[in-house]
Amino acid sequence: MVLSKHCIGDYIELVLDTNTESKFGPDDVMGMTITKEVIPTKADVAETDLSRFIVVQPGEFIFNPRTHGKRIGFGYNDTGKAFVISWNNIAFRIKPTKKEEILADYLFLHFNRSEWDREACYRSWGSSTEVFSWEALCEMEIDIPPLPIQQKYVDVYKSILANQQSYERGLEDLKVVFEGYMDNLRSQLPHESIGKYIDLSEDKNQDLEYGLDAVRGVSIEKKLIDTKADMTGVSLKPYYLLRPEEFAYVTVTSRNGEKISLAINDTDETYICSSSYVVFRCRDKGKLLPQYLMLYFSRSEFNRYARFNSWGSARETFDWSEMCEVRIPIPKIDIQKAIADIYSCYIQRKKINELLKSQLKDTCPILIKGSIVEAQKEA
Known about the structure:
Helices cover 35% and strands 17% of the residues. By secondary structure, the protein is an alpha+beta fold. Strands 2-9-6-7 form a four-stranded antiparallel β-sheet, with helices on one face. Helix 4 packs antiparallel against helix 8 (333-378).
């Protein structure tokens, strides 16, 4: 038997409660991501009037009506406390009269699928900015299995989520360990300029040994990424070789989110990057390990230092001469290696955690489909 479709609008209603009494402050302002997570807002709200902000209670949903490519910024308050969101966003909840028919947790599984994003973007309208309206959401349809079946599949999801969150907490503990080591070194050891430990690497792809598949860019998250540049008709001869354990960075730091784009090639492959980048390496790995240096570059303090020491008018740059003046504590090589090993473990576990989060999201359509199939069998 096929389940009958229901309009989502029959089951949900807008949340219109606002922060009129100013019970919630700047620390309570949240936003949402296209990966369906609720996060602290990135906006500076210190001087903002929060009285118009919408109060979101546990079990309620939020979304940004402005679409982002192929995804919708969306979140679900699955915590035990309320928060506030900007009045530019939309908050909603399950109608009190419908709570015996559909679980909020199950409804979130429905929204947390790429299939839903595609339909929502298809229903969005606009020219310079496409908007997914409240009315468009209400017009969408959903299959609603019996409550016990919903609960069964929600429990499966929560079990997987608990495992991922437990892994993530261990990840943060590891981060505290290596950051603690770094803080101790900074307070106990003298700082040295890294200029005498690093060299420019200016070997170019003159023989065209490396093609387009080897071109890499650098992100402000300190990662090598596939280039976003239009490479049509671009000669790769002047591109720099970026060998394993070598660094590349973009000198321009203005309009860059207060961060510097820098990364290490932590693979066994040789890549190539634009000649506008600076490529360098550690001169003697018996004195300064690349992995230890990268740990320092990954700290927020280095971002602030690079921005403060960037110079220019139309655009500010952190030049090679300034890089050489960077001062860091340089302990014995065995200590560097111990800290770098902890950091390497952290990075690997961080990648695994991102994979777990991706797999968790991938289970949502499977769970929704499984609940529908089970409901059809029981009907």
